[in-house]
Amino acid sequence: MQGRRWFAAAGLFVSLCTAKGQTFNIYAAASLKESIKEISKDFEKRYPNFHVAVTLGGSQQLAAQIRQGAPADVLLSAGMEQLKGLPYDPASLRIFAYNTLAIVVPAQSTEVQSLQDLAKTHLLIVADKAVPVGSYTLQMLSKAERKLGQSWRARVESRIISREHDVRSVLAKVALGEADAGIVYTTDVSTAGQRVRMISIPDDQNIEAAYPAVRFTTSPNADLAKDFMRFLFEKQAQKALVNHGFSSPIIPGGSIQLSDHGKSSLLTARRIRSLPIKNFTANEHGIVRSFRGYDLGFLLTGTEKRFRKTMVEISAGDGYKQFLELQDIVKGGGYLVDSAHDNFQLILPSKPPKFWVHWVREIVIR
Amino acid sequence: MNLRRGRLYGWLAASLPLAGFLAIPLLALALSSYRNRVPISADFLQAIFLSFKTSLLSLAVTVICGTPLALVLARGRFRTRPLLSALVDLPIALPPAAAGIALLLAFGRNGLVSTSLGFTTGAVVAAQTFVSCPFFIRAATSAFESADQHAEESAELDGAGPLTVFFRILVSQTSPQLISGAVTSWARALGEFGATILFAGNLVGKTQTMPLAIYLGFESDFDQAVMLSVVLLGIAFFTILAVRLLTFQGRASKIGE
Predict the structure, then answer these.
(1) What ipTM, to 2 d.p.?
(2) Helix or strand or coil: residue A62?
(3) Which residue of A83, A168, A235, B181 shows the fewest CB atoms closer than 10 Å?
C-alpha cells in the first residue's frame, strides 16, 4: 500500500514537471543576473504554458554556445561585438539597457580614491578582452589615457595580474581581498554586499555599455520571442532593469533632437505638446484603432517646399532607425503619440506599423 | 591469464562502444583542426611553453615530496595511516574549482597561511601539484606495497645503507610503476584548469596555461582553440604511449627471464 502511494506521488510529480509543455530559452549576460530573474518570472506569468529558462554566462561564452547549436530563442548580450556570426534576425536588434564601469576595492582598503589612483595599486584584476566588460575596460583606459597620460596607462597595464573570463569572477576576487582593485560594471557592485567599496569613474572618462537584445531565426518559438522583445520595453521590465542600476533607453523619456540640414534644435516634451493635437485612426495589424497625437507634419512643413525628395532619419531610444520620405510625414500624416515616461511614439496612419517608431529620440532631415 | 583468441573477439566486441565513445571526440578534434588549419598565435605558443614549464615543475615537486609519503603509506605501521591515506586521495574527488577556492582561502593574501603566491606562475604549479600528486602517490604506494621485501632484507644484511637499499633495490625494482604513476600525474597537471583559473587567474605568459587558453579561445577564437587542443592531445597521447610501450616491454622482459 505504502509503496503504491509513493509510486502515485512520484507519477504526479513527473506529470507536473512535464505539464509545462515547451521551454522558452533566454540567454543573458552574467551582469543581468538579478534583473533577468525578475523579468523572466513576469514573462512566465503571461505565458503559463511555457517554461522560461534563463542561461547566464559571459556574453562571449553564450555566443560561442549558440554558434555551436545551443537552443537559444533570444540573447541579451552585454556587447555588440559578441553578436558577430550568430543566426539572429538583424531587424530584431534593439538596445534595451545601458551600463557604465566602476572601480571596486575591498571594503577596508583606502589606497584607491580615484581613477588616477589605479596606477598605485599592485594587484589589479580586469576581465579578458573577449568578454564585453573587458573590451569596455580597454576603451575606458584609452579614454582616460588622453587625460592622465601614456605613462599612467602603462603603469596601470603593468599592475594587471589577471584577465578573468567573466565580470562576476573579477568582483569575487576583489571581494575576497585577493586583489587591490578591479574594474566591473556599476550594476555589479551592489551584488557583492558590504565586502567591496565602489570608486566612480568620471563621466568624461567612462564608457556607455549598450546591451543589445536579439531574436534568433532558428527559434522554434518565433512568436513568443517577438513578444518577449516587446515585453523587454514594457514598464515592468524596464523598471526591473533601472532598479538594478541600469540606464533605460526609454526612462526617463523627454526631449527629441531635431536636426534640419545640420541645424539642430531640441524639441522638449513641452514644445511637442504645444503642437496642434489631432484625433486620427490607423490600421494596426488588421484592427482600426483611434489615436490622439501631436502633428509632426505641421512642424516640418516649412522644409517640405525646398526639397521634394527629402529623406528623414528617425532614431529611437532602443537603437532602432527608420528612414522615411519627408512627404510621407507631411502629406500622409505623422503624429507623436504620448507613451509612458514622457516618451513619444511616431505613428504614420498611411503606413503599416513596421514603419512606426517607439521612443523617438532623434529626427534628422537631410 | 591471457584471453584465448576465440574469447578475445567476443570481449573486443563488447568493449567497442566505450572505445568508440572515447575515440570519436578526439577524431572530431583532429578533423576540425585539419579542415580549419590556422597558424598558432604568439599568445598560444606562450601558453604551450608555460604549460610544459609548470607541469614539469609540479611533477618534480610531486616526485620529490610524494615518494617519501608513498613509502610511509606503504610500509609505515601507525594508527593514523588510513586518515593520511584518505587525505591523499581527497583531491581526486574534490572538484578542481573547489580546490581552487580552497587554495585561495589557504594561501591567498588573506588566507589561513597568508602568502603572495596568488596570481603568479608559482600558483599555477601549486594548483597543478594539488590536483595531480595523488595519482603518483597512489601508484607509488601500491608499487612499494607489492615490492619483494626479501631483496631489500638481503641487501641490508650485506651491509647496504638505507639510501642505497632504497634507490638501488626498491626504486629500480618498482620503476615501471613509478614512471607510469608519474606520467599519469603529469598528464593530469597538464590538463589542469579549474583550480588554476581560480587560484592563479589568467594572464598571458604568466598564468595562462594551455587549458585556460583553450577555454577562452573557445569563446573568442574557435579555430585556435581547436588547434591548441590537438597540440595538447598529441603531446599527451605520444608521451603516454611511449611510456606505456616502455613499461610493457619492461614487464615482458621480466617475464621472459
Answers:
(1) 0.78
(2) helix
(3) A235
